[in-house]
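# nightly structure sweep
# worker-07 picked up a monomer target from the shared queue
# config: single-sequence mode, recycle default, output format = structure tokens
# input follows
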Amino acid sequence: MRKLSTHKKLLIATAITCALIFIAVAVWYISGLQIDVLNPKGIVATKQYELLVFTTLLGFLVVVPVFIMTILIAWRYRESNTKAKYTPNKSTNHVAETIWWSIPIILITVLSVVTWNSTHELDPHKPLASDAKPITIQVVALDWKWLFIYPEENIATVNFIQFPVDHPVNFQITSDAPMNSFWIPQLAGQIYAMPGMTTKLHLNATEAGSYKGLSANISGEGFADMKFTAKASTDTDYRAWLASVKQSDKVLTEDTYADLAVKSIDAPVTYYASSTKDLYDTIVMKYMMPESPSSGITNETDTRSLPNTTQSQMDTYR
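# output follows
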């Protein structure tokens, strides 16, 4: 067996040292970051975090041994190691085949069971069990801002929502612009907002605080600034906030909504003391129903997008 030269030993030692330093620096850097999905503050987000950690650790059971074996095999069967047994014609090893088939089958089975259970448990349409009264908030994705309507309180806000801690929040979500994605990383997963449709999302904050909300779907020029704040507070603070919103001099009517829906970037937080009844339903249905002459909310459908549609079909569509 040919011995390694001092130069090669130094190169190997240097490579190992650099790898360890890189790993240490990466761990230190990541530990100092505020990564929202790794710092959950709600019931749903916590369960999603636990699922993420579990599946990652399960993946390590495959990834780590593969990397270790790659290094060991490369080292054992290096050119200078003449003692390594070379058997190029060997085709069967029942023990090895049992190992490398059994382990993936076990892991996939475990992941399948976990995926099935978590998919049903974390279904965004499934209401959260709680003794506290749920809060309903209707969400409309616009270019490039978020409109929030509180139907039970008859108020509305732009780019800001507040709700009490330990109360389920039931979101009804749609879009009056290109398809978007509603996401509060520390409280729940993302869900798409689509014109003419209502999707649902449920969350329950376990700690008071202000949490970042954002669009998770590229939707045009102002996408990067399409952010909002979700504040979880005590019941007392929530009631005080509702009272302050109702003191606003702004009212959300169909006409003011039409002005609000105009494209704008980095829209300021705005409060509306009252909102037109069933405005959310009107926004959803305008993509399905004929245009109402009395309504300020219109559906400007371009017939060029429907090249195979006859004029009579188009009249019916409108």
